[in-house]
Design brief:
InterPro entries: Cro/C1-type_HTH, Lambda_DNA-bd_dom_sf. With 112 residues, the chain is an all-alpha fold. 53% of the residues lie in helices and 0% in strands. It has six helices and no strands.
């Protein structure tokens, strides 16, 4: 995937492999190996390439098809909509609150 993206970006800019290699301060042979997926650039070189083409490393690596959009990690949170203590009598709820305060004191938290 990386090699294809590199070649596509280079050709869009109408650059030769030598011109791009010079811009990245690497040999043309090294760069050519990147395009044919024979070698992979180190992280520092990937960043230089991404900066040169004004794309994200996620795009270079094929994690997204959007050149300038970072792939976001989706977090899904679940929560209860019912109150599991709603059926407890008031004295039970007070006991729970007292226990919570005791634990805060015991473990060094200030009472609320």
């Amino acid at each position: 995937m990386l090699g294809e993206r590199l070649k596509q970006l280079r050709e869009q800019k109408k650059l030769t492999q030598q011109e791009l290699a010079d811009a990245l301060n690497i040999s043309r042979g090294t760069y050519a190996h990147y395009e044919i997926n024979r070698r992979e650039p180190d992280d520092s070189t990937k960043l230089k390439i991404a900066d040169f083409f004004d794309v994200t490393t996620d795009y270079l690596l094929g994690r997204t098809d959007e050149p300038n959009t970072v792939k976001k990690i989706q977090t899904i949170a679940a929560h209860r909509t019912d109150d599991p203590m709603s059926d407890l009598p008031p004295e039970a709820i007070r006991s729970i609150e007292e226990f919570k305060e005791l634990m805060r004191i015991k473990y060094g938290k200030k009472p609320t």
